[in-house]
Amino acid sequence: MSLGRAIFLIAPLTLQLIVYAETDQHPNTNNESQATKTNPKIFIGEEFLNVSALTPQFGPDRIARKKLFSTETQSFHIVWIKDGEKPHIHKKHDLTVFLVSGEGTFYIGNKKFSMKAGDSAFVPKGTPHHFVNEADLSIALVIFTPPFDGEDNIPVGEK
Fold it and tell me: What is the pTM of this model?
């Protein structure tokens, strides 16, 4: 039973990206605070990416990351989070996050935001941030501008 849907459209240059999350709420409750089960779907141009078919490789931090693709101006990644990130910054990259499955608290600068599937957030470069998962697993589509080089992830407190 589909109770909620969220659709996001991003069109950098000629690329069209649609993030579609269809949420099924537990049948025994109407309470939105209950955990939800989401079937995330991502359409990239005319192609469909079945996130559920991807096999995440979790590191010791219980986070898995997979780069999907890059353009000249952005890179697109799927991130699976079982626990939470450590506070960090990206000196050279802006970050846009679309939570396609799960829920948690996203800390951006000195503020915190509750997020659930379908929510999005923007983090300007140089801003401390981290996500704390409050579900079994949260999955996010993360977009870096400019394309992420793999090295610009600096723990808070380091220069």
Answer: 0.76
